[in-house]
Specification:
single chain; mainly alpha; 2 domains; 7 helices
Length: 143
């Protein structure tokens, strides 16, 4: 899928999908899914300023999709985490994405699907490696 196709797919999901959210809000929800995060880390991940990330978090909190909680190990630290409603919204988004992708892959043979599956596994491995703290530092230096 080319750059235009990727953006068209994202717009379709956001406009017709279950979240009715802007891209940054969806990205924030997806980033918070695995574990609660500090707002500073969220800003870094979204490649935005701390005030912008705070604004995004405020909107998500007002919608009941995230909540702010004190860190259990350091009560001075505030973490953002998904609420059950936020988790459900992300699950619905993933269901929509899976259905859309399934419809796009219907015309492929089993062999072609195996090739696509292998390519996705390799891309996932590369992204996970790049997304580590070291990868983020390298990306910032390259910018």
């Amino acid at each position: 899928m080319g750059r235009r196709g990727k953006h068209r797919h994202t717009r379709w999901i956001l406009q017709r999908g279950p979240l009715g959210s802007h891209g940054a809000q969806v990205s924030a929800l997806m980033f918070l899914r695995p574990a609660p995060q500090r707002i500073g880390r969220l800003a870094e991940r979204l490649r935005t300023s701390l005030p912008s990330a705070t604004s995004i978090a405020n909107r998500l909190e007002q919608r009941g999709l995230i909540e702010r909680v004190r860190d259990e190990t350091d009560g001075r630290v505030v973490m953002c985490r998904l609420t059950p409603s936020g988790e459900e919204r992300i699950n619905v988004l993933y269901q929509h994405q899976r259905a859309l992708m399934a419809s796009r892959f219907e015309s492929l043979s089993l062999g072609e699907l195996g090739t696509v599956s292998h390519a996705f596994a390799l891309m996932t491995k590369a992204v996970l490696h790049f997304e580590g703290d070291e990868g983020i530092s390298q990306a910032k230096q390259a910018m």
